[in-house]
Every structure is written in C-alpha cells, then in structure tokens.
C-alpha cells in the first residue's frame, strides 16, 4: 500500500502546482473515516481507496480526481456525507465523489434491477464528467485484483460477470486497453476456471519452449526495418488468454488450430514511418489477405490508432503485427486518460457522440432488462465504418443495417426512414452494411418507426428509440380507444358530463391527468361501473351486472388498425372493412378485433366485449383466401392475374396441400373492403384454373 508521502510525491512529480495540503488532508480523512474496517483479504479497508488513487497517479490525473479516488467509498461505507466532503474539499470533489458512489443495495430489487439502477446512476454521472468513469474503472480493477479473497463462489462469479459485461467493455470504449485486458483476464479466471488453467498452462509451456523464438522474430523484424533506415522499437508477446479463448469459441477450433498465438508491436517515430514499415514488412514476408486494418486513417471510436497486419513468418508461422508511433501507443494503452483535457474545459471529441448515445439509451429504455440489453449493445460489439454521401464517417457494430446508420446520424432521421441506398443502389432496410459503404437514407416526414424493425436492428440506440416510439404510439392509440369508450359511458349517464365532473373523476380514481384515465379505460384497467361511479357517485348502484355483451348505445368506430399496437386484427377470421366486428379487451393488452361470426369468440369469456364499427376513413385491411388450383402449368400465374386485374396486392402466399389433381393455397391479400374481397373470390371461382375458392 502507498504511504501518504509516496502518494503526494507521485502527484507533485507530474503536477508541481497541486495542493499538497489538500492531498494530505484527503489521505488522513479516508484513513480516519474507514477506521478499523477490514477488507475480505484482512487488509485495512482504507488500503483500497489508497490503491485506487495510486492507479490514478499512474495515469497522471489532476488532483481532484486523486482526491475523489481517496474518498470514493467514504459516503457509502462510513458516516461521511456529501455536504461534509464539499465543505472540506470543495464542490467539484463532492460532485465527483457523489457520482462514483455506488447505490446502497436494495434487497427488494432483483439482481437485474439492482445492476440496471447502478448503471443508470453511473451513466448519468459519467455524462456530466468522465472522470467519474476513470475512478470507477480503477475501483473495479483493484476490486478484481483482490476478488479471490471473497469466500462465496457465487458472489465472485456475479462480480466477474458484471465486470466482463459492463466494465471491461467500458474500458475498451474509452481506449483503456491495459485496464480492459486485466479485467477480462481476472474475470475469465472466475467464470471459466478450467479453460483459464488450460490456456495459461499451454501459453506458459510455449513460452518456455519457444521463448527464444519470440525474441528471434522480434529481432528479425527490427533488423529488416533498420536496414531500410527506420528507427523502431519491437516487442513480442503471446496473445491474451481471454482473447484466445474467445477466438476458440467463435471459430469452434482447438488451441492447436489457433495459428496466430504470437503478436508483435512495432513503435516508430512518425506516422509516415508507420506506412513505410508496413510496406517493408509486406515485401519481406507474405501478408495474409483480409487481415490488414488501417486504424490510423480511420481511428476507432475510442481514439485507437494503429496499423494491423498478419504475416507468414518463414513460410510456417502466422504472426500478428501492430505498427504505431510512440505517441499512438501511449494513447492506445490508456485512451481517454492519456490525452486528458479537463484543464482545457472539455473532453476528447471522439467521446462526445458515444456518451450522448448512452444518455439517449438511458432516457429511452423502459425497464431494467431493456437498459442493460441496449447499453451492452452500445458498448460491446466489433465495429465497421460507413459514410454519408457527404463523406461523414460513422462507426457501427458488425451486422448494422441502414436503420442503425440512420439512428446513428440522428434520432429524427431514423424515425423518418422509408428506404435506403448503399453505394448508390436501392436496398431493403434490413441489409447488413459492410466496411466503407456509402449509405443514403430516404426519408418521409409522415413516416414513423416500425415495430418490425426490432427484428433486425443491432445498435442499442436504434433499439431503444424504436421501442420508445412504439410505446408512445401504442399509448396514444389505447388512449384514443379509452376516449371513445369514455364518451359512450358518459352518454349512458342520466345527466350531461362536464369538465369539472371529469376532473373530479380523475382525482377519485387517483390518476394524475386525463390521458392516464383514458389509457386505463382503453386497456381495461378500470371498468364501466368504476368510471360511472367516479363521474356521478351513486349512478352505478342499480346498474345490472353486464355479462359478455356491453350495454353500449352505439358501436365505437375504429380505423388505422396498427398490428401490434392498440388494435390487433384477429388471425382466426381476418376481418376487413364491411364485416360486422366486435372487440375483445383484456387487462393490459390491446383490443383484438374479430368478425361477429368468428368461432373463436367463444374463447373470449374472460375479456370485456366492445361493440365496434369501421370508421368511414378506414383504408383497408388484409383478408385471407383459400384456393384449390388444378395441378397443371400456368394455373398459379392465372390466379395471380386475377389478383392483379382486381388491384389486390399479395402479402403472403403459402401452399398448404399438394394432392393430385389439386394444389391448395392460402393467400393473404390487401383489400379495400368486404365488397372488394368478395369480387376477388367470385373472379377466382369463375376461372378455369381454380376448382374452388373461399374466404377464410
């Protein structure tokens, strides 16, 4: 553990203007506050914040961050308060300490909810000041180094899983690769102990047997570059155990089949020397096609810059080579902390967009599971590069689609997308993007996010925005149903209902506003009796109990039936405008619309029945037809011709039975109304190609 004078000397070595007295005061404060508290290892508890502060000095961070590291557990684990910290060390330190402080454990929460709430507070604090993230990462790294002292295997695995899923990816996203690698290694040891032991054992064996070979290859690379006049540093190492295990799992191969176990780093004096060295290495040894990446011209989102290539050394061994300048290497290893910008009042430009995306995800996520899922998607995926037509560069996860790209550019653009061009060619919105694609989004102001997009988008930002838009639309549609039901209920009362009676009803039913009441009515959370009684107390006292069919005075008109939203057209009867319809309304679900003669209505005894009618402005629906065609060439084309002649679009066609001399098809058609569908069935029956046709 660092002594008090050692910590202060470390800070003064790179920041002579630091407040020595305040640093000493913070050290003494944390020792006094933590007092006799012990860690699982048996060490005094204050050794932990001191070691975290030591990690911060290695990154040469400002004195406020060092003091925050010393005090980061005092508010949670001792009698210290944020107000006391502010009085003794100033508002900036108090704000940082409050940001880093973990939420107290809430026993009533599930593990997922607890993790999500911790993450929620953490992301909000991080968005205000990224130093919160740096202290938190150092805190987690030191806790992982001492994780083996915890006796409970279940607790060790839980902490390791959280580290692997959240903190290691966060470290990677801000370019702190040293932290990321060590966290992954320590978590890997707990989560996959057998695989960890096997791989580290094999690597140790390789190192002892071929240790001289690593040095020999590094020397060969250095000599080849020196002969061309380049001054470089070359070092070699075996790959990270977790990286090897992940590659084995992804490729479904054994350890022996991993060919590029060794990696070499070439550090040059200038960017131009990087490209010169790359050319020399490719001329000296054969490069492996498809394994070259230029992160200097197109850096990663976290600011990482380097040239990556793989070579076949002496016609037998594959080796990976990374070429970068000394300055690039320093920034690559410690990322955000290496080019610290707080004294200039800002943060590195590459981080702004990413942090903004995380905050958008935080605001859009509906519950704990959604927040964790969307955040992991945002921080833990390999990247590709795509361009706008004007040349702006966007980094996206592998497998990203034009919809992901549109939301990455701007949330409004994603919501208005109706089509896309990739490299000038029209493509479906579910098309996966490749490195270097130029993506043009075609938009319409009248468009809105579609529920079906969730089946193929891969970014957390897009998924969160789509879900939020769908929820808002669903709520608006349910509120519209509720309003129509409310108006019908009000008409059944003996007297006319005014605004005051409505406001009084909202208070009696304990809703905060009118919209909440309408949503509750539309989603069957309250019934007609409760609404009547709230509007006019005593009005429902003598009302007979309704059984199955409501005592509505008029049918409620519906239109704009959006599948998956407030309405759902039943799959059993496929109602279309012109059919007599009824709605089944269940608590917390949308209204399921059936034709009045649907046999499935017998299963609706547990639902509220709503008398419905089609609004005059309804613009059609999907009807289903079963057609038996003669098994001879051209009959399917003739049926399609009937659909085309009657201006009906085929949504889905499926052969359900194949039995000579007939083939049976079920066809879903977009039709205007019942009359339109009836004409199509009649035309099919008149065709020589069709043996029988019926609506189903």
Automatic annotation (TrEMBL):
SMART domains: HDc, RelA_SpoT
GO biological process: guanosine tetraphosphate metabolic process; nucleobase-containing small molecule interconversion; response to starvation
Domain (ACT) ranges: 624-696
SUPFAM superfamilies the record matches: ACT-like (SSF55021), HD-domain/PDEase-like (SSF109604), Nucleotidyltransferase (SSF81301), TGS-like (SSF81271)
Sample GO molecular function, one term: GTP diphosphokinase activity
UniProt EC number: 2.7.6.5
Signal peptide (residue range): none
Example of a GO cellular component annotation carried by this entry: plasma membrane
Domain of life assignment: Bacteria
Domain HD: 45-144
Family (UniProt): Belongs to the relA/spoT family.
Function as written in the Swiss-Prot or TrEMBL entry: In eubacteria ppGpp (guanosine 3'-diphosphate 5'-diphosphate) is a mediator of the stringent response that coordinates a variety of cellular activities in response to changes in nutritional abundance.
Protein name (record): GTP pyrophosphokinase rsh
UniProt organism field: Novosphingobium sediminis
Lineage, broadest ranks: Bacteria, Pseudomonadati, Pseudomonadota, Alphaproteobacteria, Sphingomonadales
């Amino acid at each position: 553990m660092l002594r008090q004078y050692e910590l202060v000397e470390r800070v003064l070595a790179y920041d002579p203007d630091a407040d020595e007295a305040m640093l000493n005061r913070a050290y003494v404060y944390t020792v006094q506050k933590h007092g006799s508290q012990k860690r699982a290892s048996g060490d005094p508890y204050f050794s932990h914040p001191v070691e975290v502060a030591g990690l911060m000095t290695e990154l040469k961070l400002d004195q406020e961050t060092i003091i925050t590291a010393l005090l980061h557990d005092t508010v949670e684990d001792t009698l210290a308060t944020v107000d006391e910290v502010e009085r003794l060390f100033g508002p900036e330190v108090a704000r940082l300490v409050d940001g880093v402080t973990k939420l107290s454990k809430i026993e009533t929460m599930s593990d997922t909810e607890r993790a999500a709430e911790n993450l929620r507070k953490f992301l909000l604090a991080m968005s205000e000041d990224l130093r919160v993230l740096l202290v938190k990462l150092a805190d987690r790294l030191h806790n992982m180094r001492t994780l083996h002292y915890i006796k409970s295997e279940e607790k060790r695995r839980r902490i390791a899983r959280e580290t692997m899923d959240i903190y290691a990816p966060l470290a990677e996203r801000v370019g702190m690769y040293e932290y990321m690698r060590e966290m992954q290694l320590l978590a890997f040891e707990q989560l996959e102990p057998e695989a960890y032991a096997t791989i580290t054992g094999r690597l140790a064996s390789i190192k002892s047997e071929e240790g001289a070979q690593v040095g020999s290859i590094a020397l060969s690379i250095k000599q080849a570059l020196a002969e061309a006049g380049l001054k470089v540093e070359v070092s070699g190492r075996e790959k990270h155990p977790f990286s090897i295990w992940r590659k084995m799992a992804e490729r479904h191969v054994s350890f022996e089949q991993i060919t590029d176990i060794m990696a070499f780093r070439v550090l040059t004096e200038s960017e131009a020397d990087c490209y010169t060295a790359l050319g020399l290495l490719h001329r000296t040894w054969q490069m492996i096609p498809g394994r070259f990446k230029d992160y200097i011209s197109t850096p990663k989102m976290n600011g990482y810059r380097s040239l990556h290539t793989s070579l076949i050394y002496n016609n037998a061994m594959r080796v990976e080579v990374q070429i970068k300048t000394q300055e690039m290497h320093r920034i690559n290893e410690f990322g955000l902390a290496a080019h610290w910008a707080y004294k200039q009042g800002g943060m590195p430009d590459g981080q702004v967009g990413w942090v903004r995306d995380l905050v958008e995800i935080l605001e859009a996520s509906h519950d704990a599971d959604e927040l964790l899922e969307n955040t992991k998607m945002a921080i833990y995926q390999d990247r590709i590069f795509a361009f706008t037509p004007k040349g702006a560069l966007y980094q996206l996860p592998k497998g990203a689609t034009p919809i992901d790209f549109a939301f990455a550019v701007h949330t409004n653009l994603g919501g208005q997308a109706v089509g896309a061009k990739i490299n000038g060619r029209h493509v479906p919105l579910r098309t996966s993007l490749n490195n270097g694609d130029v993506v043009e989004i075609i938009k319409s102001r009248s468009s809105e996010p579609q529920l079906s997009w969730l089946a193929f988008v891969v970014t957390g930002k897009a998924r969160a925005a789509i879900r939020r838009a769908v929820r808002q639309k669903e709520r608006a549609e349910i509120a519209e149903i509720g309003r129509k039901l409310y108006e019908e209920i009000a008409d059944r009362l003996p007297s006319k209902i005014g605004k005051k009676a409505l406001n009084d009803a909202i208070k009696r039913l304990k809703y905060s506003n009118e919209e909440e009441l309408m949503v509750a009515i539309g989603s069957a959370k309250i019934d007609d009796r409760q609404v009547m009684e709230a509007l006019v107390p005593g009005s429902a006292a003598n009302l007979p109990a309704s059984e199955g069919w409501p005592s509505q005075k008029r049918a409620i008109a519906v239109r704009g039936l959006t599948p998956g939203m407030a309405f759902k057209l039943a799959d059993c009867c496929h109602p279309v405008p012109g059919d007599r319809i009824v709605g089944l309304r269940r608590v917390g679900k949308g209204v399921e619309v059936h034709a009045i003669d649907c046999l499935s209505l017998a299963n609706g005894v547990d639902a509220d029945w709503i008398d419905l009618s089609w609004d005059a402005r309804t613009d059609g629906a999907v009807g289903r037809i079963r057609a038996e065609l003669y098994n001879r060439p051209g009959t399917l084309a003739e049926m399609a011709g009937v659909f085309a002649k009657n201006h009906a679009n085929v949504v889905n066609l499926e052969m359900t039975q194949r039995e000579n001399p007939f083939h049976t098809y079920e066809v879903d058609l977009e039709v205007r109304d019942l009359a339109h569908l009836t004409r199509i069935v009649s035309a099919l029956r008149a065709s020589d190609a069709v043996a029988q046709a019926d609506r189903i």
